[in-house]
């Protein structure tokens, strides 16, 4: 099978620096956008989760049904996972009274279970093996759990652990830097490092998003959630159209 045929099978992007930049912007948008619907619009976490869950389901169905890689569709689905992750985690942590630590523990267990079942079913959780409807479904369910976990973990770090939004951003940013060094300097599985980085970008986006829109008295900048979300969306769309996005090469 030639390279073009291999790439046509993949509907997820090649992992590059711009991938990670857009991913962090998307997770930050998920926080400000999710809060805009549930808080600024006063719809509540449950209604907000319902709205974003419908968007998420529609986006995943469109992504799985697509015949080839479409950057706009892929990143729309990513944004859908991160917004539903924000409202779902807030609903579980706050409305159900589970708390940040409890929500983090439950979601981490669900995430690990998703990865385990994916590996046991298909033999690999590497991004370059995502080329069938079954692997895509595992991929998106795993991502949804990771995005929800990231929200709970970010809130737990900033609030319960008392590090604040800037402190949380430094912690998660430093952890991502360590993963980047490990990627180039060690023999640790690149698949493991990918998922570790993918998971950690979400709490980084969560604390940065909270820093942008939370009250000054709580350590935030108190910017408009609508304005912050609009700016982040423009940056994401610009990144999609300005930079080249290729599908991941299968088996690499």
Structure description:
The chain is 77% helix and 0% strand. It is built from 9 helices and no strands. α2 runs antiparallel to α3, α3 runs antiparallel to α4 and α7 packs antiparallel against α8.
DSSP summary, beta strand count: 0
Structural class: mainly alpha
Unreliable spans are 1-8
**How many individual helices?**
9
Could you name the key traits of this structure?
mainly alpha; DUF347; transmembrane helix; membrane; Membrane-anchored protein
Question: Gist?
Answer:
This protein is mainly alpha-helical and 252 residues long. 77% of the residues lie in helices and 0% in strands.
Q: SSE layout and pairings?
A:
Blueprint: H1 3-9, H2 17-40, H3 44-65, H4 71-95, H5 99-122, H6 133-160, H7 164-185, H8 190-213, H9 225-242
Helix pairs in contact: 2-3, 2-4, 2-8, 2-9, 3-4, 4-5, 4-6, 5-6, 6-7, 6-8, 7-8
């Amino acid at each position: 099978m030639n390279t073009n045929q291999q790439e046509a099978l993949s509907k997820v992007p090649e992992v590059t620096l711009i991938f990670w930049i857009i991913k962090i912007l998307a997770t930050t948008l998920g926080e400000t956008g999710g809060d805009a619907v549930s808080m600024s619009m006063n719809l509540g976490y449950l209604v907000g989760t319902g709205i974003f869950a419908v968007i998420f389901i529609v986006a995943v169905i469109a992504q799985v049904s697509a015949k080839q890689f479409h950057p706009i569709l892929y990143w729309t689905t990513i944004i859908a996972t991160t917004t539903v992750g924000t409202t779902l985690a807030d609903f579980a942590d706050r409305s159900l009274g589970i708390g940040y630590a409890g929500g983090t523990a439950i979601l981490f267990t669900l995430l690990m279970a998703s990865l385990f079942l994916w590996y046991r079913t298909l033999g690999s959780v590497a991004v370059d093996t995502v080329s069938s409807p079954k692997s895509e479904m595992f991929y998106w369910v795993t991502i949804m759990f990771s995005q929800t976990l990231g929200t709970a973990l970010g809130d737990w770090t900033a609030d319960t652990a008392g590090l604040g939004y800037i402190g949380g951003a430094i912690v998660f940013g430093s952890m991502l830097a360590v993963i980047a060094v490990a990627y180039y300097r060690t023999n640790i599985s690149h698949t493991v490092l990918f998922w570790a980085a993918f998971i950690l970008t979400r709490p980084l986006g969560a604390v940065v998003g909270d820093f942008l829109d939370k009250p000054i008295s709580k350590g935030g900048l108190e910017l408009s959630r609508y304005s912050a979300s609009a700016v982040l969306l423009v940056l994401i769309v610009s990144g999609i159209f300005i930079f080249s996005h290729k599908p991941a090469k299968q088996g690499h």
